[in-house]
Structures are given as structure tokens and as C-alpha cells.
């Protein structure tokens, strides 16, 4: 239900952070199991944390952020926001990916329950902005435009003939808000020859994908131009369930929504589209070449992080999260090393990494979508070694957390505590294990692992059996509602 518009002071600005992207062009660091917004690519903070803090500092009666994310990532989002002191937030869980228009629609319906004239400041969780002061100046103008009933977006001043971004063509200036314009036309990502022309023309801007719009205006435009989305998401929000920090949308209703971006659903169709030009150092961090551009470089134009060493090398980006990585006598390369994959590309071809990921998926390789380290609400596990009928994992459980009560049909397990204290339920037994103590869990035994201590619990798990897949789990009880 949408509330009655407020008639007193100006309605607040609500940051809406979309955290559903996969970021395949930043493979092998960014993967479906843990995409780029959760990684510290440009600073000590993750892209999600940088985005949330950016909105937190923006002023203009900005409220706590509303984050829309994949259900699988809900605890990662909550933990990362908590780690930077953002304790007031709402986290909306998409039952499945339906692109940006349904995600924003869910946020608009939820915000409109309290104040339909509240202004949504919609942004991706994985973008970078260099100049906070210039952003705030542009935001103030965009909020004014939005309160007047427009669907405002930020147009970035192009710095090169970029083919990876869409372009916005500005029209006439809006009355009463100098420096803001009606949108004449949205242009899809152009071919290189067209981009070479557009980026030098003053009426064209890069489309940042950030929108500023009143909740009621967005819903009006959605109902007019994409009624199937409006109907499906309205039902999904009406059937919401709340637990902890999370708002669960009704899965069956949300699944009925078409999968479409906000650009195609509304921005390119509405007569209310406006653009506010900005020059605050925006980037979608859409490739390793973009990461190289955004970071400080040495005298030879290199960016090197992690276990990387360079000699007689120029204009390269090197990141090693794993083994020692060296480069000698090369130029203009991207080299990214993780614990289970190596990616090498010319910087000019960095956008094509997504093609490699597509090939890896077609081959059924798990490295295409999953990391060795897999995060769970209770902590994480990571694969160390695997062979025929066995595998070894490291498991880390946060203080006070516990795994589900479960059993397996095809494997037995042996746990060895490395650090901390483990409380283990094995059928009718309850065992307290300390460092260097172990327990055997026979095939079919009902068991649960808990960390009752104040420091992380770390243990080594040895699995053995004819089938070792993660789907061989029967859960009897789970505090995380999985």
C-alpha cells in the first residue's frame, strides 16, 4: 500500500543501492559466488562499502540506504555494511535476478509505503566516484529536478571514445534549474566509429546508470510503460516477509516480472527524462583496464598489488592473490592471479574477459562461477585439495554462529580443530573440542557444528565417499532459514 503524500517539509532522499551484478569482466576475482562489489579493488574498503558510505555522507536529508541484492549474498551485504558502521539499513532480497527495473520497482513500492514523495537515489553497488563534493553538488540539483516530477539521471562528461557505455543526448534546459536539461535521446553502446564522434560533442554524455526520482513518479511511469513489471512487483512486495535485517519478496509473484533494465523499461520511454551533467570522476569499474586507470601508478605506469614483482615493465596492471607472479619486459598487459585461476589479457582487450567466462561456463568449469572460498552466513569454507572419493576443506565459523543440523547420504567427515573451540552435536552426543582435537562423523549421522567461543573457530574437514557435492545435505534445522 502506498501512503498519502506528506504535505510538510520536503520528503527525504533514500539511497537505493543495487547489488545484483555479477561483474564477469573482472573475472577471475569477480564471480557469481562473490562478485566485484564485495571486493576491495580500489581501496581497503569494498566497492559496496564505498558506495554505502558515499550515500551516508551526502547530506540533503539522506536516509539510511536500502540495498537490493541476491538472496545468496544477504549475509555478506549485512556484514560488510556492519563493518563500516552502517547499522541502520534495509536489505531487500530478490528471489531471482530480474534486472534493474523490477529491483528499483521493489524499492519504490517499499519506500512509498511510508512516503510516496520520497526521492530515490538509485545507484549501482560497484561503481567508483572520485570527487564527493562535486557529486553532492550534482545530487542537490538532481533532487530538485526529481521533486519537480522528472526522472533525473547523471550524464558524465566523456573523456574518451568509450564503446562500453551508453550515451545521453541533452535537449533544452529545464526552467528553474540552470545546468539541467531534458533528455533528447538515449543512445545504446556505440560502435567505435560512432563513439569517436559522440564523445567530442558537448551535448552528449556517458550514461552513468544513476537515477534520482520520486517514488510515486517512478511507479506512475512504470505502470504506464511497463505494466507487467508494476503488477508483478506490487504483488511481490505485498507478499513480503521480514526477518532480521531482510525483506523477502514473494518469489512466485516476482518471477512473473519481465526481465528488463530500467533504461529500456522507463528511461527510454518516458517524457519526463532529465539529465544533470556531472564531472565527479565516475567509473563503472567495468574492466581491469578501468581498475588500472583509477589507481595510482609507479614511474613506469604500472599498478601492482599482492604477490607481484615487475622488471622492465610498462603500463601494466598486475594483481596476485596467490602465488608469486613476475613480469619482465612487457607492456600494456593485465595479469590477475587467484588461488585457482590466472587471467592474462592485453589492456585494450580487457572487456573481452567476459567472452572467456562464457567459454568456461560452456565447458562446465566451476572456476567460471565459484571461488574456492565460499561465504556462508556462519563464516566460510574453502577447498584445499580434492581427489577421487576425498576432499579437504578449511572451515571458519564466526563466534556465536552455527551450521545447520544436517546429515549426508554419500559421505563421512572428519573434523580437526586448528583454532578456537567447537561444540559438536553427533546424533545423541554433544562434544566440546579444542585445538588439536578431532571428531569422526560417520555417513548418515545427524550432526551440527557451533562456535561457542569469542574467537573464530577454524578447523580442517576431510570428506570421504563416492559423492562429495554440496547438494548432499539434508537439513533438519537452520537458524538462517535456508
From TrEMBL:
Q: Per its UniProt record, what InterPro entries does this chain match?
A: GMPP_N, Man1P_GuaTrfase/Man6P_Isoase, Man6P_isomerase-2_C, ManC/GMP-like_b-helix, Mannose-6P_isomerase_type2, NTP_transferase_dom, Nucleotide-diphossugar_trans, RmlC-like_jellyroll
* Example GO BP: polysaccharide biosynthetic process
Task: Respond yes or no to whether keyword Acetylation is given for this record.
Answer: no
**Enzyme's top EC category:** transferase
Query: What does the UniProt keyword field contain?
Result: GTP-binding, Isomerase, Nucleotide-binding, Nucleotidyltransferase, Transferase
Q: What is the E.C. number? A: 2.7.7.13
Q: Which residues form the MannoseP isomerase/GMP-like beta-helix domain?
A: 312-360
**Pfam families in the record, alphabetically?**
ManC_GMP_beta-helix, MannoseP_isomer, NTP_transferase
Task: Specify the domain of life of the species encoding this protein.
Answer: Bacteria
Q: Record's family?
A: Belongs to the mannose-6-phosphate isomerase type 2 family.
Q: What is this protein called?
A: mannose-1-phosphate guanylyltransferase
Amino acid at each position: 500500500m502506498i501512503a498519502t503524500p506528506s504535505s510538510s517539509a520536503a520528503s527525504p532522499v533514500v539511497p537505493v543501492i543495487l547489488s545484483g551484478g555479477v561483474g564477469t569482466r573482472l573475472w577471475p576475482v569477480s564471480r557469481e559466488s562473490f562478485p566485484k562489489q564485495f571486493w576491495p579493488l580500489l581501496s581497503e574498503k569494498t566497492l559496496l562499502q564505498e558506495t554505502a558510505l558515499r550515500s551516508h555522507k551526502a547530506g540533503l536529508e539522506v536516509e539510511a540506504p536500502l540495498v537490493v541484492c541476491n538472496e545468496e549474498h544477504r549475509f555478506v551485504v549485512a556484514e560488510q555494511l556492519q563493518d563500516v558502521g552502517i547499522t541502520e539499513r534495509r536489505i531487500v532480497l530478490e528471489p531471482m535476478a530480474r534486472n534493474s527495473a523490477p529491483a528499483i520497482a521493489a524499492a519504490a513500492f517499499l519506500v512509498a509505503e511510508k512516503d510516496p514523495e520520497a526521492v530515490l537515489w538509485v545507484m549501482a553497488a560497484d561503481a567508483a566516484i572520485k570527487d564527493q563534493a562535486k557529486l553532492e553538488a550534482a545530487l542537490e540539483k538532481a533532487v530538485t529536478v526529481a521533486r519537480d516530477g522528472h526522472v533525473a539521471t547523471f550524464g558524465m562528461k566523456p573523456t574518451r571514445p568509450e564503446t562500453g557505455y551508453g550515451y545521453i543526448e541533452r535537449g533544452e534546459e529545464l526552467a528553474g534549474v540552470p545546468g539541467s536539461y531534458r533528455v533528447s535521446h538515449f543512445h545504446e553502446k556505440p560502435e567505435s566509429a560512432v563513439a569517436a564522434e559522440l564523445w567530442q560533442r558537448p551535448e552528449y554524455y556517458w550514461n552513468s546508470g544513476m537515477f534520482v526520482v520520486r517514488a510515486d513518479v517512478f511507479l506512475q511511469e512504470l505502470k504506464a510503460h511497463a505494466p507487467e513489471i508494476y503488477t508483478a512487483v506490487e504483488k511481490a512486495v505485498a507478499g513480503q516477509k521480514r526477518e532480521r535485517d531482510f525483506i523477502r519478496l514473494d518469489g512466485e509473484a516476482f518471477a512473473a516480472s519481465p526481465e528488463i533494465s530500467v533504461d529500456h523499461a522507463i528511461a527510454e520511454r518516458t517524457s519526463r527524462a532529465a539529465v544533470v551533467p556531472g564531472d565527479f570522476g565516475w567509473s563503472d569499474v567495468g574492466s581491469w583496464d578501468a581498475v588500472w586507470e583509477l589507481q595510482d601508478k609507479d614511474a613506469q605506469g604500472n599498478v601492482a598489488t599482492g604477490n607481484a614483482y615487475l622488471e622492465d615493465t610498462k603500463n601494466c596492471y598486475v594483481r596476485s592473490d596467490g602465488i608469486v607472479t613476475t613480469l619482465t619486459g612487457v607492456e600494456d598487459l593485465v595479469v590477475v592471479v587467484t588461488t585457482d585461476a590466472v587471467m592474462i589479457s592485453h589492456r585494450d582487450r580487457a572487456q573481452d574477459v567476459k567472452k572467456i567466462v562464457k567459454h568456461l561456463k560452456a565447458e562446465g568449469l566451476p572456476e567460471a562461477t565459484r571461488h574456492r572460498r565460499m561465504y556462508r552466513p556462519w563464516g566460510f569454507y574453502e577447498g584445499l585439495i580434492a581427489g577421487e572419493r576425498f576432499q579437504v576443506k578449511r572451515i571458519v565459523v564466526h563466534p556465536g554462529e552455527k551450521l545447520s543440523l544436517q546429515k549426508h547420504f554419500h559421505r563421512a567427515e572428519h573434523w580437526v580443530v586448528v583454532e578456537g573451540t567447537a561444540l559438536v552435536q553427533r546424533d545423541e552426543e554433544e562434544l566440546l573440542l579444542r585445538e588439536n582435537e578431532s571428531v569422526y562423523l560417520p555417513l548418515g549421522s545427524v550432526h551440527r557444528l557451533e562456535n561457542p567461543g569469542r574467537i573464530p573457530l577454524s578447523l580442517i574437514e576431510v570428506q570421504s565417499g563416492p559423492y562429495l557435492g554440496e547438494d548432499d545435505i539434508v537439513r533438519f534445522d537452520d537458524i538462517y532459514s535456508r
